[in-house]
């Protein structure tokens, strides 16, 4: 008999009347209810926004590395680093010998697993502002100028929208030709076909022979603000780069088979060590940059940032939960006489407990819903204003709502139990 009554009693406790009492109580104290759910709102909004930013950042970084070439292996003088002044580079790295064109030639000749070997120089190692203009005087906004070889296209996964790429003859005859990115087309040749026209680099005329495909922003900068010239011409025009002590030459390589990246690295490291006369006990005097390792580094950084922000959000949610418990205990005290009347009219302990528990869950669920809306709003604003692919996965929305509901259940349980244990006689006498 008792087993048959239990489901009906439980069903009755969570019936429409219980929800009606709970929501009526919330509406009667709008300001108090709103202030109570602010902690839940802030915590859930932070979780949703952070998940959106991390997901968007990971998507952008993954796309950037994928577009730069599958299995990219780059040799350089300094170890990969993200930001910071040159003064922070360890002295051991500054004293390394520069990589040379002969090193690149040896890799091209002996590294049989490499599909392309691309030696490259740029102006990043010297603080030199180089003006790039068209014949009419319009100037490009600080493009990156690189000296490259015909292998650059394949090693860096860059194709052309128009024109042609460099040939060995461009390097051997030091032709003053160049290939420009979409940003330079927009600033120097907005209404004309740039191929065949001239740009002035530091006052020296170069003929445009190609236009790179548009790629968009990468790592906080534009991948289309780029100007390529033959490496031999670059060395003639900017001898301070070749003869400097910075990271003067990068050698980008890609494997014939993307599954054999590690084998390619081992083969190329052996070639460079032999060329540079390193003994078995000596460390490499060059650095290795791989797209996969860098991608993992970026993901670890974003995961650490996300963990820190979620910890802060957890504190906000904890504060919100304590606020829920506090306000519900105040409600129990203020409505002691109401509890006594309801019990006198036949309400059971389950009815009273369910009423206050539903009220607590409703408050936190409402805070969670508003927090989800705020978090999504922030993510959408960032996406529109900064063209950043911030987007909250569905699981994060479900998680935010689930956490807020769980907080209502957890922190509302003790006030609900306290209300249910009120003695009806004492409750009716309460003033």
- Report the total helices: 16
Question: What is the total number of structural domains?
Answer: 2
Radius of gyration computed on alpha carbons: 33 Å
State the order of secondary-structure elements, H for helix, E for strand. Answer: HHHEHHEEEHEHEHEEEEEHHEHEHHHHH
Structural class: alpha+beta
Shape estimate: elongated
Query: Residue-averaged pLDDT, rounded?
Result: 80
Helical content (DSSP H or I, runs of 4+): 55-70%
Strand percentage lies at 5-15%
Biggest sheet features:
11 strands, mixed
| E-strand count | 13
Oligomer: single chain
Distance between the termini: 39 Å
Q: Return residue spans where pLDDT drops below 50 for at least 5 consecutive residues.
A: 1-14
Key structural traits:
431 residues; 11-stranded mixed β-sheet; elongated; disordered N terminus; 16 helices; alpha+beta; single chain; two-stranded antiparallel ribbon
Structural summary, described in words:
56% of the residues lie in helices and 14% in strands. With 431 residues, it is α+β, with helices and mostly antiparallel strands. The protein has two domains: 194 residues, no CATH class; 189 residues, no CATH class. The strands form two sheets. Strands 1, 2, 3, 4, 5, 6, 7, 8, 11, 12 and 13 form an eleven-stranded mixed β-sheet that branches. A two-stranded antiparallel ribbon has the order 9-10. A hairpin with a 2-residue loop joins strand 9 and strand 10. Helix 1 packs across helix 14, helix 3 packs across helix 14 and helix 5 packs across helix 11. The chain is elongated and about 105 Å long. The two termini are 39 Å apart. The relative contact order is 0.19.
């Amino acid at each position: 008999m008792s087993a048959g009554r239990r489901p009906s009693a439980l069903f009755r406790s969570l019936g429409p009347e219980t929800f009606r009492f709970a929501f009526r109580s919330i509406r009667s104290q709008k300001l108090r209810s709103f202030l109570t759910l602010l902690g839940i709102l802030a915590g859930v909004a932070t979780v949703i926004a952070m998940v959106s930013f991390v997901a968007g950042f990971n998507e952008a970084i993954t796309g950037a590395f994928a577009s730069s070439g599958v299995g990219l292996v780059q040799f350089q003088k300094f170890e990969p680093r993200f930001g910071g002044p040159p003064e922070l580079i360890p002295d051991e790295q500054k004293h390394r010998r520069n990589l040379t064109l002969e090193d690149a030639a040896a890799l091209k000749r002996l590294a049989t697993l490499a599909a392309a070997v691309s030696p490259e120089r740029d102006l990043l190692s010297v603080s030199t502002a180089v003006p790039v203009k068209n014949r009419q005087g319009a100037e490009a906004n600080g493009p990156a100028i690189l000296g490259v070889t015909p292998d650059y296209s394949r090693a860096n996964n860059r194709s052309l929208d128009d024109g042609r790429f460099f040939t060995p003859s461009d390097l051997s005859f030091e032709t003053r030709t160049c290939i420009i990115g979409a940003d330079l087309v927009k600033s120097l040749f907005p209404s004309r076909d740039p191929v065949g026209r001239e740009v002035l680099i530091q006052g020296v005329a170069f003929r445009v022979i190609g236009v790179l495909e548009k790629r968009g922003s990468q790592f906080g900068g534009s991948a289309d603000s780029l100007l390529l010239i033959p490496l031999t011409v670059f060395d003639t025009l900017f001898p301070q780069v070749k003869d400097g002590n910075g990271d003067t030459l990068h050698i980008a390589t890609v494997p014939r088979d993307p599954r054999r990246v590690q084998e390619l690295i081992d083969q190329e490291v052996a070639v460079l060590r032999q060329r540079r006369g390193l003994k078995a006990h000596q460390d490499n005097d060059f650095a290795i940059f791989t797209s996969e390792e860098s991608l993992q580094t970026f993901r670890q950084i974003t995961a650490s940032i996300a963990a820190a922000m979620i910890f802060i959000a957890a504190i906000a949610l904890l504060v919100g939960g304590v606020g829920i418990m506090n306000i519900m205990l105040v409600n129990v005290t203020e409505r002691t006489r109401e509890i006594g009347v309801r019990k006198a009219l036949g309400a059971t302990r389950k009815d009273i407990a369910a009423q206050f528990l539903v009220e607590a869950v409703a408050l936190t669920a409402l805070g969670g819903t508003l927090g989800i809306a705020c978090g999504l709003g922030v993510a959408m604003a960032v996406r529109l204003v900064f063209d950043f692919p911030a987007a909250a996965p569905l699981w994060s929305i479900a998680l935010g709502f689930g956490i807020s509901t769980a907080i209502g259940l957890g922190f509302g349980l003790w006030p609900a139990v306290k209300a249910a244990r009120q003695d009806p006689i004492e409750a009716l006498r309460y003033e």
